[in-house]
Design a protein that fits this description.
The chain has 943 residues and is of the alpha+beta class. It has 29 helices and 38 strands.
Length: 943
RNA sequence: GCUCUGGUGGUGGAAUGGUAGACACGAGGGACUUAAAAUCCCUUGCCCGCAAGGGCGUGUGGGUUCAAGUCCCACCCGGAGUACCA
């Protein structure tokens, strides 16, 4: 019987659907295992072959775990809010909900064809009210909590209110926007507005005027991870810095726990490293420098090199620094103002493009170095950033490359205070660069002179702490996440405003549903699209949304007009999958206590500094308020590598526009123009000439210079994209070869984690393998008398395969697993194996990889239940025992010949056998100097 | 610049310090066939040689080891992330 994959695959897909084979229960006495794919955004372009790579890998693992007796949660859903659908809506007027729905349907259709074991009954979509109810709910919890550094967790804001009423800010150690000091009397005397303003300083979701990444083209604010090189990640539009009142999440409060948590999870080093860099923890000191103006004023700087404080020759403030106005001397005022204005108006892109260019201005003011009492000039420069540390630095040009460049540019003094050896002092004026390394000894440095850098750091910190002018501290690069978007297609904030003070909508009233709008663009007055919504006001008394014409600011108030960003809905979705239809809670205690966390998470490394930080933060917060039970949500994480495109080229002669020269005949690449050609009309780099002529009108009369009657195309690895005509659609391959072939081939391409080019050339080989595998069962199924006992050889092959496949799956080495199936199939075919006892376990082994063919053969072998519920075969080592071993024999480490010896031979007998072998005569002269005998591995003779 | 990755045949890749190139693609040769498709068999890292056999080979140069693609040091090249983060 032929391998009719089309018929087999559609039949079993239908069976799985109708019998709910992939339905997972939260009640089970089996051990649990949770396999998750990163939430896809359903784009309009549909899936290309790169997308399913990770899904196939996770599906194999999920099916494998199930065969091993685990209750496996393997859900799928959609990150359905997002910019592309909304941009499309702005252009066409089509409601983003409609576009999104269409894209989801297309995705689902494509996914279904590949035969995944997703439990679709748990599907979630971020844009559905019953889902985003819990996104809004979490936001409200963030709004209602603050981070207590002493308790090292989030606590209710109500506790803070009680504390303020009793003792004011006394003794409070909490994450905040700015450090406030006030007494209980003051707190109790303040009105509601003032109190709310103070509380906002501590809330984990807070509203503040902050410098944001404003993207005019998209009409919205973006988070740091959504901006690369001054351009928006989506669309590539310019981004500028702007001060705006926005919602933010106090992610920075969790910085230390986000760093520490990395120790407990099983991620790749490179991914952990990206997160560590993004969080950017650095230890150092905060030091106060007094200002020379008789005002007793001072300002705080942060440094990681307190040991170099004797080498400070100037101070630098960022252009946004509040002290600038106060300290600038009248003579310098005009120049400083001009510089500050110039710096503030520069776009992020301009600034970043000119990082090497030095700019700055002297304020005319001086500070005092608290350790040397020296007078030090204060400058302003944009190389000091407002968002990091205190926005002010002590400059040590000899030992910081940026300070060095600045000092050279403006002719400021450079003083060496660190040297590799105690006496290796040289004239910094002769240096070509600063000495930034944290090694060597302090020189010219008062009481720390002669100390090693590390000792000097500690000594200086001790000294400034003693003097009461500074302290040891830690700074993080990680900034709070901007949480407002001036867009339509996102979760509305459950917030309304009384006298400009935000108030939460009661939790019982959630979800606050996204209103209909007349237009998706910003309003004429520059408000976000929700400004177009007519029914968008909060009736406090009746607890409902009403028409905004009713706003009286007494009982009916305006609602927030921004919406939440893309990462809002994707930060806790893995928890919702545990209990997706719960209307009473985000998820039940029972559900989270059973599933705990995601055991295996598969997705792209591009989410390292976005989603994977936000989700960890979200989960830690939910942990603090008693929701999630495990602090780290994703125990093991695998990054699937990008699948790159493999483009094909034809070469048009520059001398003759209608002539195309086959690759091997080109003498000089300068004589031809390479042109991308659709990979679908190229087979193994041979161009289909007829289809090429039909492809585009301008090639209708194309002429060719052929080699051996063929036109050979060139190729290159590039991004998979429409414009390069190298996109491969999985549907086409499924139609041609079947889903099982596609699944195997995607795995066969190479290691899951590695980036690799897509090349359809090899798919035939995998398809041939499946046909061969299928044929293996012909005899077994047709011949009743062929059910005899397996041979020793067959059992060895089977148990060896069980061991290899199990090992390979455990270490996510799916490409070698596929190879091993090929090897085994070749061996069994050569042996004409038709023994059920060998072939039946093979069906179970291949089921995670090629579920359709496995299910078909499983039933043909007479089983009534699904192969998904079979038992994973166990390797019995007794069948692997060999009587003899073929030893490679080396002389001086070089392999010379093989010799077959009894498996339990002693070293002495083995060496004697080697000496007696005729091949040895050539290599062995006299007695061996040394013999290395590794049982069952190798014999090496040194002579 | 810094951090992380990777560098093995014509191609994708395999190899836990122990036979480098498994498996597959492509290519070449052959069988079957009137022919084609399908299928099957053989060869296929490079160099010398009719062969037997030998030499050289995992980016480069050193080192450790009986033995190095694998471990250590230095360097070269590609990819990714990040970038005045004090």
């Amino acid at each position: 019987m032929d391998y009719n994959f089309g018929e087999i695959e559609s039949r079993w897909q239908k069976y799985w659907r109708e019998h709910g084979v992939y339905h997972v229960s939260n009640v089970s006495d089996k051990p649990h295992y949770y396999v998750l794919d990163m939430f896809p955004y359903p784009s309009g372009a549909g899936l290309h072959v790169g997308h399913p790579l990770g899904y196939i890998a996770s599906d194999i693992y999920a099916r494998y775990k199930r065969l091993q007796g685990f209750n496996v949660l393997h859900p799928m859903g959609y990150d359905a809010y997002g910019l592309p659908a909304e941009q499309y809506a702005i252009q066409t007027g089509q409601h983003p909900a409609i576009t999104t729905e269409q894209n989801i349907n297309r995705y689902r259709e494509q996914l279904d064809k590949i035969g995944f074991s997703f439990d679709w009954s748990r599907e979630v979509r971020t844009c559905e009210p019953k889902y985003y109810k819990w996104t809004q709910w979490t936001f409200l919890q963030l709004f209602k909590h603050y981070y207590d550094n002493a308790a090292n967790k989030a606590l209710p804001i109500t506790a803070l209110v009680e504390r303020f009423a009793k003792q004011g800010s006394e003794g409070l150690d909490a994450a905040c926007t700015e450090v406030l000091t006030f007494s209980a009397e003051e707190w109790n005397s303040w009105d509601e507005a003032k109190r709310q303003q103070v509380l906002m300083n501590y809330r984990l979701a807070y509203l503040a005027d902050i410098p944001v990444n404003w993207c005019a083209e998209l009409g919205t604010v973006l988070a740091n991870d959504e901006v690369v090189n001054g351009l928006s990640v989506r669309g590539g539009y310019p981004v500028e810095r702007k001060l705006m009142r926005q919602w933010s999440l106090r992610v920075s409060a969790y910085a230390q726990r986000l760093v520490d948590g990395l120790e407990q999870i099983d991620w790749t080093d490179s991914l952990k490293e990206i997160q560590r860099n993004w969080i950017g923890r650095s230890e150092g000191a905060a030091v106060w420098f007094p200002i020379v103006d008789g005002s007793n004023g001072a300002f705080e700087i942060f440094t990681t090199r307190p040991d170099t404080i004797f080498g400070v020759t100037f101070m630098v403030l960022c252009p946004e620094h509040e002290l600038i106005d106060q300290i600038t001397t009248p003579e310098q005022k005009a120049e400083v103002e001009a510089y500050v204005t110039w710096a503030k108006n520069r776009s992020e892109r301009e600034r970043q493009a000119e990082v090497k260019k030095v700019s700055g201005v002297f304020t005319g003011a001086y500070a005092i170095n608290p350790l040397t009492e020296e007078k030090i000039p204060i400058w302003v420069s944009e190389y000091v950033l407002a968002g990091y540390g205190t926005g002010a630095i002590m400059a040590v040009p000899a030992h910081d490359s940026r300070d060095f460049a600045f000092a050279r540019h403006f002719g400021l003094p450079i003083r060496q205070v660190v040297a590799l050896e105690k006496d290796a002092v040289s004239d910094p004026n002769t240096w070509e660069e600063s000495m930034d390394a944290k090694t060597g000894y302090s020189v010219n440095s008062g009481f720390v002179t002669g100390m090693k850098v590390k000792e000097a750091m500690a000594a200086v910190i001790n000294k400034i702490e003693e003097m009461g002018i500074g302290h040891r501290t830690v700074n993080y690069r990680l900034r709070d996440a901007i949480f407002s978007r001036q867009r339509y297609w996102g979760e509305p904030f459950p917030i309304y405003y009384k006298d400009n003070i935000p108030y939460p909508i009661p939790e019982e009233c959630l979800p606050l549903e996204l209103p209909e709008v007349s237009e998706f663009k910003p309003t004429a007055t520059g408000e976000p699209p929700l400004g177009h919504a007519q029914k968008w006001a909060w009736d406090e008394k009746n607890r409902c949304v009403v028409d905004k014409s009713l706003i009286d600011n007494k009982t009916i108030f305006p609602l927030e007009l921004s919406t939440m960003p893309g990462f809002a809905g994707s930060s806790g979705y893995y928890l919702r999958y545990m209990d997706p239809h719960n209307d009473e809670a985000y998820f039940s205690n029972d559900a989270v206590n059973y599933w705990q966390k995601v055991d295996l998470y598969v997705g792209g490394a591009e989410h390292a500094s976005g989603h994977l930080i936000y989700a960890r933060f979200w989960n830690k917060f939910l942990h603090d308020i008693g929701m999630s039970v495990v602090e780290e949500p994703f125990q093991k994480l695998i990054n699937q590598g990008m699948i790159q495109g493999r483009s094909n080229f034809v070469y048009r002669s520059k001398a003759d526009n209608g002539l195309f020269i086959s690759k091997g005949l080109i003498k000089n690449m300068d004589d031809v123009t390479p042109i991308h050609v659709d990979i679908n009309i190229v087979d193994n780099d041979v161009l289909n000439i007829d289809r090429f002529r039909q492809w585009r009108p301008e090639f209708k009369d194309a002429r060719f210079e052929l080699e051996e009657g063929k036109y050979i195309c060139g190729w290159e690895v590039e991004k998979m994209s429409k414009s390069m005509y190298n996109v491969q659609n999985p549907d086409d391959l499924v139609a041609r070869y079947g889903a099982d072939t596609l699944r195997l081939y995607e795995m066969f391409l190479g290691p899951v984690e590695q980036a690799k080019p897509w090349d359809t050339n090899g798919i035939e080989g995998v398809h041939r393998f499946l046909k061969k595998f299928w044929k293996l069962y012909d005899n077994c199924l047709n011949n009743q008398n062929n059910q005899g006992a397996p041979t020793k050889e067959e059992l060895k092959v089977l148990h060896h395969t069980i061991k290899k496949i199990t090992d390979d799956i455990e270490r996510f080495s799916f490409n070698t697993a596929v190879s091993n199936f090929m090897i085994t199939t070749n061996l069994l075919t050569d042996n004409k194996c038709s023994c059920r006892e060998v072939l039946e376990p093979m069906v179970v082994l291949i089921a995670p990889f090629a579920p359709h063919i496995a299910e078909e053969l499983w039933h043909q072998l007479g089983h009534e239940d699904s192969v998904c519920d079979a038992l994973w075969p166990l390797c019995d080592p007794q069948f692997l025992v060999e009587d003899t071993v073929k030893y490679p024999v080396q002389f001086n480490g070089k392999m010379r010949f093989m010799i077959e010896l009894p498996a339990d031979i002693s070293q002495e007998n083995a060496v004697n056998a080697v000496k007696a072998a005729p091949e040895s005569a050539k290599w062995l002269t006299g007695e061996p100097k040394k013999v290395i005998f590794v049982p069952k591995k190798i014999i090496n003779i040194v002579c």
